[in-house]
Amino acid sequence: MSAGNVSKKRKFVADGVFYAELNELLNRELAEGGYSGVEVRNAPMKTEIIIRAAQPTKVLGEKGRRIRELTHIVQRRFNFDEGTVELYAERVLTRGLSAHAQAESIKFKLLAGVAVRRAAYGVVKFVMESGAKGCEVIVSGKLRAQRAKAMKFQEGYMIKTGQAAVDYVDKATRHVMMRQGVLGVKVAIMMDHDPEGKRGPKKPLSDIVTIHEVKPDAVIPAAAAAPAAQMVAPAAPMQPAADAVPAALPAY
User: Helices marked H in 112-200 — which ranges?
Assistant: First the structure.
């Protein structure tokens, strides 16, 4: 988006609105393809939009037709100049660590008539087997009776607050249009620390304390210890001479 002479505050707000609207558009259009998020990169000459999905072939479409249509829609909606925006599709490395993909999985299972417990526990088990540190699934609404309620399924370790919750926890929400009403599905996946940054954040958790082993004392070799033994002893204090006359005491 062209910034022009816009203040920083207005630019940040405009970028946030652009990202939210783009994310909502792609989420509706590419739900069946396992849409898992979008990243916007502002290059000097053009804007690159990277779409992450579990099935990139469904994002591209037959001979790239679908992604060209999406590019045209984004270009018209957000007033991009011709050729200044490009869309790319990227495969999610580990589908089990993507909250969006798992929320879509629960949504399609519920629409297919699978029981809530079976659908939720199946996702929790798959996520934990994929290497997650913790997983939480909440399904709320008219599950069986007319009275609405919420069911929570969780396993492992989950951080709720602080900067670690922003860095480590991936969250997604979906609405399932059932015959008896709308069900809400929330999925939260806590990833593990990964020094390479592929399967989790590079930054370690702030409460992890690493105790290093004590380094052994350096052994001084005998050749280096010899000069210390040859040090000259300190001189003895001087004694007064025998023929020295003591000074007269003052008279009182």
Answer: 116-129, 163-168
